[in-house]
């Protein structure tokens, strides 16, 4: 493997003049990791429905219907055979033509109507499991409607259903060099998307106008999705507190404007957020922005193997405290894992019950996104800055490179 693989965005084309990430080799390495995680948890097979897990195991890039994630396409991972693809009817014929590495493909309905789900278990899933001697095994399940669980228990009563998502999270936790290279490519697109949005900011422009320019750039450059299905552009008082959808609000002179859209490419996400000023800032806006910028830099420095997610959160909160803003964070985590999932464990700065302390390991990737807001500031006093960061021995390496608004730094 080349030493520089994963250190920069190589480009999107298949080429004969440069060695770039091989998607077929990467898929085999991902399968090996998933099988290892499956075995570590004593599972005989994995039945996955989450979009990112199906993509991770099979390479399926499917049509996604809004609101139907984890109900459209599935994958049955066996210990010693190619994954079995359970595809929405509209994908089956295409998959048989363009995905020759999948040996077995079956059509399934949208896994929501109780009768159709039971029929899929009775006529598709049960025969597959019987054929492989798995009707009495331990089957890991990542996500599904409860009617699927009921049908599995009724029609396969000796099958033990277990948590399969934990195995997939473990497989996806540490990124392979090829995965980092694809995230670098997604980051290059995300930067261009964010730059297009920033350049659209002007007095008299609506938040939705900014989104339109950004999304045009996303699809022009081959991006698959935005990081968030509802692109986040909030201006002025819409960031105090944050209004997390773009609206018809008109951007005005003196407004802070936050942009969080990101990009997916090759199955991997890059998450980036920038706050800019429309016109000239006033002092309070600069104070908040500088505190958030310092908090992000402190987080990056803390993202070394051996530190914990709690250490990173403490670094962020410490920077805010030095600016007298420790009590002004949004009530949300400070960072989250990112990769084939747009938002995945582990989390940084999660305060809700059950939050886990996780030791950072080289190859983990996070989106770190401190957001501080101060009410009552003319033109808005809310700032978020966000980068996708790779845990590295010398400190975190930002995969997103877009600069910051120097007018807001003091």
Number of domains: 2
- Which class of the largest domain in CATH terms? Alpha Beta
CATH superfamily of the largest domain: Creatinase/methionine aminopeptidase superfamily
- Give, in spatial order, the strands making up the sheet with the most strands: 4-3-2-1-5-6
Number of helices: 10
Radius of gyration, whole Å: 23 Å
Distance between the termini: 44 Å
CATH fold-level name of the largest domain: Creatine Amidinohydrolase
* Stretches with pLDDT under 50, minimum 5 residues: none
Shape field: elongated
Mean pLDDT: 95
State the major sheet. Answer: 6 strands, mixed
Work out the helicity level: 25-40%
Based on secondary structure, the structural category is alpha+beta
The helix-strand sequence is: HEHEEHEHEHEHHHEEEEEHHEEEEEEE
- Count every beta strand, where a strand is a DSSP E run of 2 or more residues: 18
**What is the architecture of the largest domain at the second tier of CATH?**
Alpha-Beta Complex
Strand content: 15-25%
Please summarize what this structure is.
The chain has helices spanning 23-40, 51-58, 89-98, 114-131, 146-155, 165-173, 177-200, 207-220, 283-302, 309-322, and strands at 45-48, 74-77, 84-88, 104-108, 138-141, 160-163, 232-235, 256-260, 263-265, 268-270, 273-277, 335-337, 344-348, 365-368, 371-373, 382-384, 387-390, 397-398.
Tell me the layout of helices and strands.
Blueprint: H1 23-40, E1 45-48, H2 51-58, E2 74-77, E3 84-88, H3 89-98, E4 104-108, H4 114-131, E5 138-141, H5 146-155, E6 160-163, H6 165-173, H7 177-200, H8 207-220, E7 232-235, E8 256-260, E9 263-265, E10 268-270, E11 273-277, H9 283-302, H10 309-322, E12 335-337, E13 344-348, E14 365-368, E15 371-373, E16 382-384, E17 387-390, E18 397-398
Helix pairs in contact: 1-6, 4-5, 7-8, 9-10
């Amino acid at each position: 493997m080349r030493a520089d693989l994963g250190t920069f965005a190589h480009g999107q084309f298949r080429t004969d003049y440069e060695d770039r990430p091989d998607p077929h080799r990467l898929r085999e390495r991902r399968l090996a990791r998933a099988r290892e995680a499956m075995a570590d948890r004593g599972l005989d097979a994995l039945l996955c429905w989450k979009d990112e897990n199906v993509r991770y195991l099979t390479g399926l890039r499917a049509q996604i219907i809004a609101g139907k994630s984890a109900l459209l396409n599935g994958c049955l991972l066996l210990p010693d055979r190619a994954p079995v693809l359970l595809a929405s009817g509209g994908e089956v014929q295409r998959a048989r033509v363009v995905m020759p590495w999948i040996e077995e493909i079956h059509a399934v309905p949208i896994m929501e109507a109780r009768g159709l789900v039971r029929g899929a278990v009775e006529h598709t899933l049960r025969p597959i499991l019987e054929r492989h001697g798995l009707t009495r095994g331990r089957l890991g399940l990542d996500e599904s409607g409860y009617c699927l669980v009921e049908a599995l228990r009724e029609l396969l009563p000796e099958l033990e259903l277990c948590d399969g998502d934990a195995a997939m999270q473990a497989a996806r936790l540490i990124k392979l060099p090829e995965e980092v290279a694809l995230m670098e490519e997604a980051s290059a697109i995300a930067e261009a998307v964010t730059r297009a949005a920033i350049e659209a900011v002007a007095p008299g422009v609506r938040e939705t106008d900014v989104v339109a320019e950004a999304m045009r750039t996303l699809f022009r450059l081959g991006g698959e999705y935005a990081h968030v299905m509802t692109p986040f552009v909030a201006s002025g008082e819409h960031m105090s507190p944050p209004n997390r959808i773009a609206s018809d609000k008109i951007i005005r002179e003196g407004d802070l404007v936050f942009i969080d859209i990101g990009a997916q490419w090759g199955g991997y996400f890059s998450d980036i957020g920038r706050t800019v000023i429309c016109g000239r800032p006033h002092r309070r806006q600069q104070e908040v922005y500088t505190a958030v910028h310092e908090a992000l830099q402190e987080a990056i420095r803390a993202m070394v193997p051996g530190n914990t997610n709690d250490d990173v959160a403490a670094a962020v909160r410490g920077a805010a405290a030095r600016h007298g803003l420790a009590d002004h964070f949004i009530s949300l985590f400070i960072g989250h894992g990112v990769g084939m999932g747009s938002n995945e464990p582990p989390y940084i700065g999660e305060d809700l019950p059950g939050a886990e302390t996780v030791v950072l390991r080289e190859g983990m990737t996070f989106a770190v996104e401190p957001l501080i807001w101060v009410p009552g500031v003319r033109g808005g006093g809310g700032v978020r800055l966000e980068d996708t960061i790779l845990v590295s021995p010398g400190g975190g390496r930002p995969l997103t490179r877009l600069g910051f608004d120097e007018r807001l730094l003091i």
